[in-house]
SpoIIE family protein phosphatase
Amino acid sequence: MSQPDPVADRPVEDRPAVVLVIDDNPTNRYILANWLQRAGHTVLEAGDGLGGLALLAPGATPRPELAIVDVRLPDLSGFEVSERIKSDPRTAGVPVIHVSAIAIATSDRTQGLYRGADAYLTEPIAPSELLATVTSALRYSRARMRAEQLARRLDTLNRATLDVYRAVDPTELAAAVARGARTLLQAPALVVTQPPDTDTVQLTHWDEDGRAVVRPAPPALLDSLAVAALGAGVGVGSARYGVQEWADLLARNDVRSPAPGGAEVTVVAARTKRGRPPVCVALHTDAETSEEDRDLVSQFTQASALALEALRSYTEEHTLSVTLQRALLPRSLPEPDGIRLAMRYLPATRGNEIGGDFYEAIETPAGLLLAVGDVVGHSLQAAVVMGELRHALRLYAHEGHPPRTVLERLDALLDREWPGWTATVCIVLVDPDRTGLSVANAGHLPPLLLDPLGEGSFVHEHGPMLGMGLPQPPSAEVRITAGTRLLLVTDGLIETRDKDLTTSLEELRTAAGQETAGPDALCEHLLRVFGAEQSDDVVLFAAEVTDQQV
């Protein structure tokens, strides 16, 4: 049976240290070093002040944790040595104990303490007094260092957690977790996650060049890690793997990963709901040097699991919202003689609230009616209002009302059924002979007309938006020729907070004129030009008159 190690059994605060003794008297140095070594300390010796400071310089090893400095030295005074140690941020935390057989007056002790010493002993010194003073100074400095380190770790934990919660997709989230874990313990970390709504497992680590490296892995790997660390439960758990055991686990799952490896590995896993794939963070076991380290990694992994669950919920809600919104829009477009139609609808890429953008195309006895609208607001209720407006528009159009009258009836409907709600709607009626348009616009972006050569012009005539209870002006009448294209859009395509609307419309006109092919090509071209992530829904509705019936 192995014997207990009295040194290892001591509290961390009282364990031996590397102690620097600076004294020009070899006999004194020998006596002090002997006492310290018998107590288990490692001793470094210097015969003058500059030599002692050199042993404290950056890169010097081993690094002293405490310095015992004679007050009277041949080059610098012990007071100057103490001041230099305390003025350097890299050594300011090293305790200094002054010793002297000559400078023993109250003024000497006072000066030493004022100039940076943590204790002042006068000779003759008893061994027990010296060792007690060393233990006390080390205990205080180590406690302060641990507190400072913990504060830094907590700050790092806070920053890393914020980075995780800022992630907008599962890949970005896994990269933030890998970077945070690496920064938290200053050690390689491997993150194993399963993005929402996929059967794919991702391995993510942060390389030495500051890049996230993502590799696929089979779901069986995540299952194995989850069972070992958590079983079927929720919360946070961990499992340890020996060097060969970890290598075998990766090999069984055909995984080649550079981090972590070559040492014992600890996997910390967290899940917030039973049955959900957990977030797993793998790192070298020896990177966790204290209970505080283990607690920080557990907290960070739990926060990452919560962030992934929030992202999963967001994805599910966004999918449901888009599905609902699409259900409120037309299932297909008509195929009228002499006109080609194309439409593109893109839900907002940010946020999970559904908007009120809609479009419509209806063949009526008076001609082909095309409409695009936008209920102001983003919510389920906005979508409900949008659906009711669209169905009412279809009804009024089939009754044979002209565009201006349709807008007035929609305005009355909003005022009666949905007071306080507003909407913009642009209606274009194409004559049966395809030679003219009637445009009625209630506060919407103006429709763009493109002639066969690509020259574009807006129909700027418009009235107030719906829901205001104000009269609409007469429809604008426009003559067209074969080959004319019409474009209706919602503001999500071009409007930005930092750009004037007039500028945005001019950019739209220029971009549309660059594509002279049919409606489908025009829509695709505009999406390429204005296709950055949008915070609002986008509707593009294009039509081309291919044949006039005169």
